[in-house]
Amino acid sequence: MAAPAAAHPHVFIDYTVTILCGADRITGVRIAWTFDEMYSASLFHDYTSRPKGPLSAADIAELEKGAFQDSAEDHYFIDITFGAKVLPVARATDFDASYDGRRMTYRFTIPVDLAPGQRTGILDVASFDTEFYIDFELAKHDPVTIRRGTQFKLSCRPEPVTRETTTFGPMQTRIARCRLPGAA
Amino acid sequence: MIGRLNPRRLALMLAAVVLLLGAGAPVRADPFHHAGPAPGRHEPAAPSVAAVGGGFMAWLAASQHGLNDAIADAFHDVETKNSRTALALILGLAFLYGMLHAIGPGHGKSVVASYFVAHPARWTGGILMGGMISLIQGASAIVLVGLLAILLQAKQIEVLGRSTVVEFVSYGLIVAIGAVMFYRAATGRLHAHDEAGAHPHGHHDHHHAGRLDRRLIVATGLTPCASAIIILLFALANGAFGLGVLTVAVLTVGMAVTISTIGVLVVLGRRALLRIVDKAGMQTHRLERGLAMAAAVVIVGVSGLMMYDAWTRL
Q1: How many CB atoms lie within 10 A of CB A77?
Q2: Tally of structural domains, chain B
Q3: pTM recorded for the entire structure
Q4: Within a domain: residue B176?
Q5: Residue B219 sits in which domain range?
Q6: What are the extents of the domains in chain A?
Q7: What residues in B contact A8, CB-CB < 8 Å?
Q8: Residue B272 counted as domain residue
Q9: pLDDT in tens, chain A (184 residues)
Q10: What letter does residue B207 receive in the DSSP assignment?
Q11: Distance from B116 to chain A by nearest Cα, in Å?
Q12: Pairwise CB contact (< 8 Å): B309 & A4
């Protein structure tokens, strides 16, 4: 069921996508969410022990447990598709958080195991909340980066698409789109 | 239309809400911390043909994002530099934020529109109803944050979750009022609120443009606006609750402008429609009855959905 009452955005997140590559395959996507200042203040107030940053290891563990892990039920608001195939969103790993005094940033990795196929393939990675309680926007600076990947060339860029939301109707948004070369 | 709001009853209603809040029922705190599955979320939303509406909604969201950031920045300037310009900026931005935010779902727009489809009113009634609903929405947020975050020292993100309980109660009350509206319309007791009791044929709207339904206004306004709660919590975290209250007051005025505009447009639209039908020499009372019944169905339907939705988030 939709969430009409909660549907207008109340939390704003700027996100970046880093494609993690092994020698001959993609091993994961690293996501960074930077929360708006207001929600950041609430997170900092509720889950940390120090009056000001930086976050301690205990704070980060508390944030992960109290204000991140449960979003696994919503697949961390991450959609990964390769061609027409929706890839399963595995349990997030390597959670990290930082607070710069104004904004909270979460970083986490979704493990992926994807080898380039025979033909060119399109890999899409998006952070999106169909209920639109959270407005995810691809960051303006360095939204998509690639880490390593020596055996195959990958090209990524932000791509404007239109997605359906449960109550707002179609919504224009930018996602990360990568082109994988076919096997040589 | 269903009588005046007894102050004692209003007090009882509010007390019930407070009790519910204090009961400490486990609530889904926020999207990052909750219980229960979110069905249907997994399928990535299929990219569809680019729509004009999608661009407008994206613009609306981006504008709110920008305003939210700017308000937070100005808060810091007030705090650190004691800047009066920053204070004026916050209030101006909050007004814009309220206007834009109220365009999105919720905030009682469908209730206001349906009410004025069903009932004759003056255009000032549209302004009054929009204004009162927004005012109560703002006050409700202030009471909620004051009670939970300050008195009960609840976690900030829990406060947002608890507001779902109030939402549920609010929509439940609206459904009940809508059901009574439907009964009245269906049995031909359209303007029961008109104490003169005389009911002419409906082509002199202003003659029986009676008082507004205060219960409906209170029930609709009871739902606190989550944005108002977020601003108050932010202010509280920064040790500036007073500034937060002021900001929410102005936000409320901005929301009132949007909701009142819808109210006034519907009042005028209904009047124009009835005038056309009347001039064509047709009886208007049947149309009026049809409008009232349809409007009541919309109120019950929309609020019922909202109520169900709040239930799934409880």
Answers
A1: 23
A2: 1
A3: 0.75
A4: yes
A5: 67-313
A6: 11-180
A7: 64, 101, 104-106, 227
A8: yes
A9: 223 334 467 789 999 999 999 888 899 999 999 999 989 988 998 898 877 778 999 999 999 999 999 899 889 999 999 988 899 999 999 999 999 988 999 999 999 998 877 677 899 999 998 888 888 999 999 999 998 766 777 889 999 998 888 766 788 899 999 998 775 4
A10: G
A11: 22
A12: yes
